[in-house]
Amino acid sequence: DAKHQGKGRVAAYRNGMLEAATERHKLEADLRQAMSLNQFHLAYQPVMELDKDEIVGYEALLRWEHPERGMVPPASFIPLAEETGLIGEIGRWVLEEACGEAASWPNERHVAVNVSAVQFRSPLLLSHLTASLAKSGLPARRLEVELTETALVEDGPKIASVLADIRRLGVKVAMDDFGTGYSSLAHLCEFPLDRIKIDRSFVVAAEENSRAHGVVMAVVALGRHIGVPTLAEGVETKEQLELLRNLGCEAVQGYLIGKPARLRGDDPRSREPLRATA
Ligand code: C2E
Ligand code: MG
Ligand code: MG
Ligand code: MG
Q1: What stretch or stretches form a coiled coil here (predicted)?
Q2: Atom 15 in ligand 1: which residue has the minimum CA distance?
């Protein structure tokens, strides 16, 4: 009967919740060990400047090679790392690893590192940046930190002063995934920035949707007017590339130019991205 069915459904729902909680617990336990078991590495995706058609840098993207699960994408463990506080240790490793690897590249290309909102709020970020640069010998001008808008929602003047501190070190600051978070034009008035990264979703939509095309055009122009260069993320086709070039976007990133790849290690392809690939 209906009542019985209802009870069954509640039980199934409870079981589902329980499974999800158990799964989360397992993932968390594994994540706690991942660092000491050397399961992390960084993949680097090239950044191409459009005026010279030249690779000018790379974004470091965290990869977790799990012995049973395989490659766990950052979207499925970064939020957990943030909730559990593990992001502090992981984020610090990412920073040191990225600076260390970039310092060994035979060129002047920059490395962009994603910094989570949790790290950004920590008073230790500045000293971690300084320490990573000192330890690696990487010149500060070759390091860029990427922040999403969610990192920039709180106390405006406080954020502006942290950004200014970072830039005083000579490190560059990029706003990541622009347009997808709590975008506010006030941010652009208030915060010192070196780059605006236009989210992939706009790039994809711009080809088919005239409004999205208008939005990308306006953001590129906005960047130009406030003296902050724009970079479009997730460029996959020649058509998208030409569209962005025509709009005057300064730089692009995406599978068309290069997928994230290791730059060192045993893989013979690993050294490939060090040469200009596009
Ligand atoms: P993000 O910083 O916006 O990085 C861009 C994401 O888009 C990367 O996904 C990249 O692999 C993917 N991508 C690049 N080009 C293309 C393309 O042409 N097509 C498509 N479909 N995708 C493209 P990934 O590596 O899975 O990283 C996802 C997100 O995880 C990143 O988004 C970033 O927010 C976060 N993340 C990655 N590494 C770190 C890290 O070291 N620390 C922190 N805090 N977050 C990280
Ligand atoms: Mg990023
Ligand atoms: Mg992004
Ligand atoms: Mg993104």
Answers
A1: none
A2: 254
Which atom of ligand 1 sits closest to the CA of residue 148?
34
Over range 230-237, report the average pLDDT.
98
171 token code pair: 């490190």
Q: What is the largest CA-CA distance in the chain?
A: 73
Percent composition of the chain: helix, strand, coil (DSSP 3-state, to 5): 50, 20, 30
| Predicted complex: ipTM over 0.85 | yes
Which single residue is written with the structure tokens 């010192």?
192
Instruction: List C-alpha distances in Å: 216 to 58, 151, 236.
Output: 23, 22, 16
Half-sphere exposure of 197 (CA within 13 A, CB side): 25
Report the residue count for the chain: 278
| Residue 102 near residue 94, CB atoms below 8 Å | no
Alpha carbons within 13 A on the beta-carbon side of 41? 12
Write out 75-111 in H/E/C secondary structure: HHCHHHHHHHCCHHHHHHHHHHHHHHHHHHCCCCCEE
pTM, whole model, 2 decimals?
Answer: 0.92
The mean predicted confidence, pLDDT, of the chain is 91
